[in-house]
Design a protein that fits this description.
Elements (H helix, E strand, L loop, with lengths): L6 E5 L1 H10 L2 H5 L3 E6 L7 E10 L3 H9 L7 E8 L5 H11 L3 E6 L5 E4 L2 E3 L5 H6 L6 H18 L5 E4 L6 H20 L12 E6 L14 H8 L6 E6 L2 E6 L5 H6 L4 H6 L1 H6 L4 H9 L1 H38 L11 H10 L4 H15 L4 H11 L6 H4 L39 H10 L35 H4 L5 E6 L4 H14 L4 E5 L5 H10 L16
Parallel strand pairs: 1-2, 1-3, 3-4, 4-5, 7-13, 8-9, 9-12, 12-13
Antiparallel strand pairs: 6-7, 10-11
Helix pairs in contact: 3-4, 6-7, 8-13, 12-13, 13-14, 13-15, 14-15, 18-20
Protein name: Syntaxin binding protein 3
Family: Belongs to the STXBP/unc-18/SEC1 family.
GO biological process, one term: vesicle-mediated transport
């Protein structure tokens, strides 16, 4: 792009989010981009300037692009970059109407958001309803789109992974997605311009359905990042806090190196050792940055001290009373290892305490999950106790995911995931639960994940031997991925939303194995409250489309 003169960059909603996740306006200006515009808004013509279009290859985007050049061109020329493969019919439509204005047209294979070093998102929260709603009319279309996005991730990482899914009659959507991804990967590498056609690499791509672990998104998680997004209103990664009597905002992202260092730390460790956590000037590159920028150091320290204090206030006021009961229900045993024989005795104190309704719903769900479903009579009593007679969808609609709520004979086939023994691991009594996805990651890395339970969609990859890989967020310049990798990479995709605790697991497994990088992604990132709203909305009927005809004389 740098060989062009001053130019305009035109983005759709998705590519705006994509660029915002990995660069700043100053980065764009260094590439001679002086104006950034919204593709779908009315814009003043600038016929003397060239326009770079970075957009998704959708009918809506193509139509907006054509409108920029018909009947009269708004710009001197168009340089078009699609996030991924443009369907032939849309490409032909664009060519037919605007060919003389298009100087460049490329597909660059990056239809995902690189949120963190090891986390990516399809930025599609609506996919949850499209996939799981019994009234969905666009399920197949949504799965196709997600598959295309996953393929662009694999292409960016230069991987052709073996695709695996959970073999389970109750979880069909993961199998369907695995099939789509596998077929699209084969097609992508067949069309690859590289004369040495790529075969399967040693990577594995694990497709995990949200229903496989309904517990992790519901529990109160007490690590810094997960706790913050659960208990505090953080919108667009922006934390609002008070300092010196005035309101301030701080972005919680990869640019904040202190946030990156602290985000997976347990809140108890964070507040018990504030000097080590916030002020330790021996923290490698961070200390050097802070020495050079004392103002920055003070600001970051203030942000995180304020956030940690906020979280502890929430914990002591309300969450502390919930955590023991939640953990006992989730784990099936108390902190001393004694089996919970009567889950209702564990649940009852939560229901009798004046917790807010959402917290009670979360506890009721954990109770039901612990039993693998309950009777209709018992469920009705619980719903009446929580006073959600008109909002029972928060609980009942989990069945649309294949999670048993009512213990009927048809649900007997739903088997709980067998868990790793972690009794020797040191944990806090209020944080004994480990997300199921961590078991899966460790099983794959150790070559222990049963092929009969997690079959490959087609061909198996080469022998697994770990990886020293490039992150989802940034490739190292000047090096090919093969130069940086001595083994294999694990990519985990959660269909239906991923939690912050599950994101943390990817880093923990990577750290524990050193040579193996685990990358995790999903349709979107979820919090307990956002998931409950998504679940509730599954029961809503879609609005009927209708047209109003003029009265005929």
């Amino acid at each position: 792009m740098s060989n062009l003169s001053s130019q305009i960059l035109i983005l759709d909603h998705f590519t705006t989010r994509l660029l915002s996740s990995c660069c700043k306006m100053s980065d764009l200006m260094s590439e001679d981009i002086t104006i950034v515009e919204d593709l779908h808004k009315n814009r003043e013509p600038v016929p003397e300037m060239k326009a770079i279009y970075f957009m998704r290859p959708t009918a809506e985007c193509i139509d907006a692009f054509i409108n920029d050049f018909k009947p009269k061109a708004k710009y001197k020329a168009a340089y078009v970059f699609f996030t991924d493969y443009c369907p032939d019919d849309l490409f032909d439509k664009m060519k037919k109407n605007c060919a003389k204005h298009i100087k460049v047209c490329k597909e660059i294979n990056i239809s995902f958001l690189p949120l963190e070093a090891q986390v990516f998102s399809c930025d599609n929260a609506e996919a949850f309803k499209s996939i799981y709603s019994p009234n969905s009319k666009d399920r197949d279309q949504t799965l196709e789109m997600i598959a295309d996005q996953i393929v662009t991730l694999c292409a960016t990482l230069d991987e052709y992974p073996g695709v695996r899914f959970k073999k389970d009659p109750n979880l069909n959507y993961g199998k369907k997605l695995a099939e789509l991804v596998d077929n699209k990967l084969a097609r992508h590498y067949e069309l690859d311009d590289n004369p040495n056609k790529k075969g399967k690499t040693q990577a594995q791509l694990l497709i995990v359905d949200r229903a496989l672990d309904p517990v992790s998104p519901i529990l109160h998680e007490l690590t810094y990042q997960a706790m913050a997004y659960d208990l505090i209103q953080i919108k667009d990664n922006t934390y609002e806090y008070d300092t010196d009597g005035s309101k301030k905002e701080a972005l919680l992202n990869e640019e904040d190196e202190l946030w990156v260092k602290l985000r997976h730390m347990h809140i108890f460790m964070l507040v018990q050792t504030p000097q080590a956590a916030f002020c330790n000037i021996s923290i490698g590159g961070l200390s050097q940055l802070m020495k050079k920028m004392p103002g920055f150091r003070k600001q970051m320290k203030t942000v995180h001290l304020s956030l940690a204090e906020d979280l502890m206030n929430h914990y002591q006021k309300n969450v502390e009373k919930l955590c023991k009961a939640e953990q006992d229900l989730a784990v099936g045993a108390d902190a001393e290892g004694q089996k919970v024989k009567d889950p209702m005795r564990t649940l009852l104190p939560v229901l009798l305490h004046p917790h807010d309704t959402t917290d009670k719903i979360r506890a009721v769900l954990l109770y039901i999950f612990s039993l693998n479903g309950t009777t209709a009579e018992n469920l009705n009593k619980l719903i009446q106790h929580v006073k959600i007679e008109d909002e029972r969808g928060y609980i009942l609609n989990w069945e649309h995911l294949g999670v048993p709520i009512l213990s009927t004979p048809s649900m007997f086939s739903f088997r709980k995931q067998s868990r790793r023994d972690r009794s020797d691991e040191e944990t806090y009594k209020v944080s004994r639960w480990t997300p199921v996805i961590k078991d899966l990651m460790e099983d794959v890395v150790e070559n222990k994940l049963e092929v009969k339970d997690w079959p490959y969609q087609s061909e198996c990859p080469s022998v697994w031997n770990g990886s020293r890989a490039v992150s989802a967020r940034q490739k190292h310049k000047g090096s090919s991925p093969d130069d940086l990798r001595s083994g294999s990479r694990l990519i985990v995709f959660v269909l239906g939303g991923v939690t912050y605790s599950e994101m943390r697991c990817a880093y923990e497994v990577t750290h524990a194995n050193k040579s193996c990088e685990v990358i995790i992604g999903s349709t979107h990132i979820l919090t307990p409250r956002s998931l409950l709203e998504d679940i509730y909305n599954l029961g809503k009927q879609p609005m009927e489309s209708f047209s109003i005809e003029e009265d005929k004389p």
